[in-house]
Design brief:
Number of strands: 26
Number of domains: 1
CATH superfamily: Single-stranded right-handed beta-helix, Pectin lyase-like
Radius of gyration: 23 Å
Structural class: mainly beta
Strand order of the largest sheet: 1-2-5-8-11-14-17-20-23-26
Largest sheet: 10 strands, parallel
CATH class: Mainly Beta
Helix content: under 10%
CATH architecture: 3 Solenoid
CATH topology: Pectate Lyase C-like
Number of helices: 5
Distance between the termini: 67 Å
Shape: globular
Length: 327
Amino acid sequence: MRRPTIPLLAAAALILAPAAPAHAATTITVAADGSGNYTTIQAALSAAKSGDTISVKAGTYHGQVSIASAKSGITIKGATGTATDIVITGNTPQSSGGPTVSATVLNLAANTTITGVTIANTYGSGSQALALYAGGDRQTYRNVRLLGYQDTFLSWGGTGSKQVRQYVYKSYIEGAVDFIYGNGALVIDSSTIHSLNLNSSNNGYITAAATNASNPYGILITRSTLSSSAAAKTVALGRCWHAGGAADSIGQVLVRDSALGGHIRQAGAWQDMSGFSWKTCRFNEYNNSGAGASQGTSDRPQMSSATAANYTAQKYLAGSDGWNPVQ
C-alpha cells in the first residue's frame, strides 16, 4: 500500500522549523515585605528553573530552605551584597529527625551558587543543629555567614566513596563542636572560622572529617583566619570521625597558609573520637602563622612542601571534570 506523501511546502516547513527555545535565565525577586515576586525563598525555588537567579531583598526569613537535587544550576543571591542584611534562620535540632530535618538550608542540588546571605541555626547546645547541609556536587558559597553551635556546616555525599565538592570563599563560619564536618571535598578559602567561647578549658573542635579511605582529599582550610575570644590553647583543629563506626572513614584535613589564633591547642590539636585515634585519620598543617601555629609539638604533623604542591584548592576540587571555581 502506497504511503501518503507530505506536500513539498509542508515538508520544508517541518525541516526548517526551529527547535523550541531553551529556557531564558531570569531573576526572581524575594522580599519579606511583599515588594518582590514572592515573600519566601522556598516559593521562589518552586518556580525557578536551571540558570535562574533568586535575588533576596534585605530581611529575616524563617524556616527551612530546601533545594532539591532536581533544582541544579540555581543562584541564590543577597540583593544588597552585605550578608548580614539577609538572614535565613531556623532553630531545629538534629534530634527532631536527623540532619536533613535540622538544616536551615538543605542544598542537595548540583551547580548551585549562594552568595551574600547569612544562614543560621540558633538552637544552641544540647543537640547537633545544622545551619547548612551541602549535599550536591560543584556548589559554591561566596560572602556567606554560617552560624551555629554543634555541626554548623555538613558536606556530605552519602555513604561509600561517592564525593561531592564545595567551594567556600571570603565567608564566615562560626560554631563550637565539630562545626565543619563530613566526607565531601570541601575547600574553605580566604575565610574566617570563629570558635565560640564556651568555658575555660575545652572550647570544642573545628573539624570532624569522615573522608572515605579511597578519596585523597577531604577538608582544606586555606588562606584563612582561625579566630576566637576563647582562652589560649582550648580549641582543637579537629577530631577523627568514623561516621557510623565505618573503618574506612579515614578523615583528611589540611590547614595551610592560614593565621591561627592562640586559642588553638598546641598539644592535642588533633583529637580522638568514639574510640578511634586521631592517628587513624589524615591530619596535616602547612605554612601556618600566628600564636596558634605549631611550635614544634610532636602531635601536629606538618606537610612537606613537595607534598603540599599536590594539596591545593584546585586539586581538591578538580575531580574528573576539571572543575575550578577557585579565585
